[in-house]
Design a protein that fits this description.
Elements (H helix, E strand, L loop, with lengths): L3 E5 L3 H13 L3 E5 L2 H11 L5 E5 L1 E2 L2 E2 H10 L6 E5 L4 H9 L4 E4 L4 H27 L12 H15 L4 E4 L6 H12 L5 E5 L8 H6 E2 L11 E2 L1 H4 L4 E5 L9 H10 L1 E2 L8 E2 L3 E6 L3 H6 L5 H7 L2 E4 L10 H16 L5 E2 L1 H9 L5 H15 L4 E2 L6 H6 L4 H5 L7 H15 L4 H8 L3 H13 L7
Helix pairs in contact: 2-3, 6-7, 10-12, 13-15, 18-19, 19-20
Bound molecules: adenosine-5'-triphosphate and magnesium ion.
Length: 456
């Protein structure tokens, strides 16, 4: 994307020249010949402007008013002041007041361009931070869950937040890995940014420069130096999502950063120290990737200092009613309409469904149901067909992902389901199942030793 430069200058010939020089070098320019107009533009476009070049004296306004206007609306754009030879002193004052640099008329195109490049490079981390902040949702991460595995996870999140060790988050797609990463950052008290990057979404030849930045001479087309996301995350947390897709060629570089706490921009000879907490996530089996030579073993161990696993939603159906309520609340807040009720049979279907897409799929199903609901209650008809068809009676088959279950598995699933419906009350569950309590306890113990989660 081209940088956007506002040029304010009342000498029209000069204005045109500036504009020409800048656009020939690939910058996008907005030109104004009038101080007040410049002020209006700064207010309106503050999020889009990367740099302001202004004449010091213009009708209707003085350069320093423009400068403070830029500061007032908290634009991260640096300001370059153009001044006549006679008023250098005032220009120096403006630099003291926060302008990036001044240039005296007359000047050569090169002189201007090098000032522009420097100003943009120096302000790049700030502008990048501002961009990420703008795009970040304002509400703090809210993780819902009361099941035993989730409570254990909350405890781990709290402890992980206190340390600065690298964290690896695993879990199926849609289980909330990014949400967990965000909460670790928020609870950590680190005052830098949370900077997420999806390693699978960036072409492999660009990812090194994206992470570590590059110098102006790094490769053809690199017009000017650029900081990477590690620099953007200074003092904060970088979230490396889909870490399994990090190209093998870049893996040693990340390893070095984790070991030494330094980065090296592409094309640079020197390293620089960074203070960034690294949280990575994957829904792949990284250990398997290590065995197959797709992922470096040493990096795997470096990332895996603290391991957080988020269980799939079908392994913690106890959380489903809570999540349903949460998403209904959220929708009501957003739309300003009253909250919908959920019919018990709707909830039963939702709880029995296997949710291959996990919480994300549940969230979408609820959103859709709310949009479709005719009354004040969510009925089974409002649910997506795959959910209403596979919830309830056919849930056993859905949960086994197509394979036929053994009788023992059906028994186990049924017992756990009844246990859930009684809210974990073992006496009541035993009664409904026609078992004595001892037998129920024995069976639950067996399931536990098989690694099946029987706790609600
Ligand atoms: N425990 C939870 N409480 C509330 N919302 C949740 C919870 N878990 C996930 N969500 C919501 O579900 C959606 C998916 O979560 P998120 O993007 O964190 O998943 P993910 O594990 O990163 O998925 P993917 O592997 O596909 O990237 C988000 O809208 C998130 O807010
Ligand atoms: Mg994710």
């Amino acid at each position: 994307m081209n940088e956007r430069v506002l040029v304010a200058e009342d000498d029209l010939y000069m204005l045109e020249t500036l504009q020409e020089v800048l656009s020939e070098s690939g910058y996008e320019t907005v030109a104004v010949a009038d101080g007040e107009e410049a002020l209006r533009l700064i207010k309106r476009e503050r999020e889009l402007l990367d740099l302001v070049i202004t004449d010091m004296k213009m009708p209707g306004i003085k350069g320093d008013e423009l400068l403070s206007a830029v500061r007032d609306c908290r634009a991260e754009a640096p300001v370059i002041v153009i001044t006549a030879f006679g008023s250098v002193e005032q220009a120096v004052d403006m630099v003291k007041a926060g302008a990036f640099q001044y240039i005296t008329k007359p000047f050569k195109a090169d002189e201007l361009l090098s000032a522009v490049e420097q100003a943009l490079e120096t302000s790049a981390p700030l502008r990048e931070q501002a961009r990420i902040r703008r795009e970040m949702p304002v509400t703090p991460a809210q993780i819902i869950g009361a099941s035993r595995p989730m409570r254990a996870l909350f405890d781990l999140i709290g402890r992980a937040a206190q340390s600065s060790s690298t964290v690896l988050i695993t879990g199926e797609s849609g289980t909330g890995k990014e949400l967990v990463a965000r909460s670790i950052h928020e609870l950590s008290g680190r005052n830098g940014l949370f900077v997420p990057i999806n390693c699978s979404a960036i072409p492999s030849e660009l990812i090194e420069a994206e992470l570590f930045g590059h110098t102006g001479q790094a490769f053809t087309g690199a017009k000017q130096a650029r900081p990477g996301l590690f620099e953007t995350a200074e003092g904060g947390t970088i979230f490396l999502d889909e870490i399994g897709d990090l190209p093998l060629g870049v893996q040693p570089k990340l390893l070095r950063t984790l070991q030494e706490g330094t980065i090296r921009r592409v094309g640079a000879s020197a390293e620089q120290v960074v203070n960034v907490r690294v949280v990575a996530a994957t829904n792949r089996d990284l250990e398997e990737d290590v065995k197959e030579g797709l992922f470096r073993e040493d990096l795997y161990w470096r990332l895996n200092v603290i391991h957080l696993h988020i269980p799939a939603l079908r392994e913690r159906p106890f959380d489903i009613p809570l999540l349903v309520e949460h998403f209904i609340n959220k929708a009501a807040e957003l739309s300003g309409r009253p909250q919908l009720d959920v019919l018990p049979e709707t909830l039963a279907i939702l709880t029995a469904y296997s949710w291959p897409g996990n919480v994300r799929e549940l969230e979408n199903a609820i959103e859709r149901a709310i949009a479709l609901a005719r009354g004040a209650r969510l009925t089974p008809d409002d649910l997506p067909e795959r959910v209403s068809k596979n919830g309830g009676a056919s849930a056993f088959i859905a949960r086994s992902s197509g394979r036929n279950l053994t009788l023992r598995e059906v028994e186990r699933d049924y017992i756990l389901e009844v246990l859930r419906k009684t809210g974990g009350n073992k006496s009541r569950a035993a009664e409904q199942l026609g078992l004595d309590r001892k037998t129920l306890y024995r069976k639950l113990d067996e399931y536990r030793t098989e690694g099946v989660s029987v706790d609600l």
